[in-house]
Amino acid sequence: MTTAQELLPIWTNNWGFPDFGLSIHSLGTTFLALLGNRLGYVGVAEVPAFKQGNYAHIGDDVRSDAVWFDKISHSPFLIAEFERYSNKNEQWKLEDKAKNLLLAQHRWSETAELLLLAYWRKTTVSSPNHTNLLKIIKEGFETQAKERVRGANKGQFVLLEFVMRENSKNLLYLSDIILREN
Q1: Is the pLDDT score of 100 beyond 90?
Q2: What is d(CA 96, CA 21) in angstroms, rounded to the nearest whole number?
Q3: Which residues of 123-141 are buried (b: 16+ CB within 10 A; e: fewer)?
Q4: Fewer CB within 10 Å: N-end or C-end of the chain?
Q5: Rounded-to-integer distance, Cα 23 and Cα 159, Å
């Protein structure tokens, strides 16, 4: 949490941020890009995966919420998605993000060593089902057009849970980041 406070103090209890539109999503993608830069990569938010390789024809716009590029190879080291999770009826949103991660990994020629799915929730919301998310990355999925996307041959799948609380001004702040088993 210290790093989060240093990189993005607007997201701390002393400050907080209103939950409207994509405000928390913007903070999350900014944080992930800044963290990549802090760790020695080139962290970029909202990065499209070029239409290349065997999966160039699947999906229109495969855009990752954050990518950390290696400074020597210029290839992605980490591909990340960041999504809100409000209740079990929104499991599909996380599954769509896992599919986007997998497609991005394929389009980048499976160069990323880490595939990060980060989601945020308020403290009053229970965690989602992680099993289906891991299954999508490992085994792949079928698109609505009945096209098969194989699972990832490379890249470790990581799940992070960002827990949000309200401060005394009813603004949301980041209270914890939890590494989830997968």
Answers
A1: yes
A2: 19
A3: eebeebebeebbebbeeeb
A4: N
A5: 21
pLDDT in tens, 124-170: 888 899 999 999 999 999 998 899 999 999 999 999 999 999 999 99
Residue 145's domain comprises 2-180
The CATH number of whichever domain residue 21 belongs to comes to: 3.40.1350
In this structure, the strands spanning 114-122 and 76-84 are: parallel
Number of domains present in the structure of the chain: 1
Q: Are 119 and 82 in contact (CB under 8 A)?
A: yes
- Beta pairing partners, 115: 79, 157
129 to 88, 91, 182: CA distances (angstroms) = 8, 7, 10
The two tokens of residue 60 are 């229109």
Which ranges of the chain does DSSP label H, i.e. alpha helix? Answer: 2-7, 23-38, 91-107, 131-139
CB count in 10 Å sphere of residue 23: 12
Share of the chain above pLDDT 70, in %: 99
Query: Which of residues 54 and 91 earns the better pLDDT score?
Result: 91
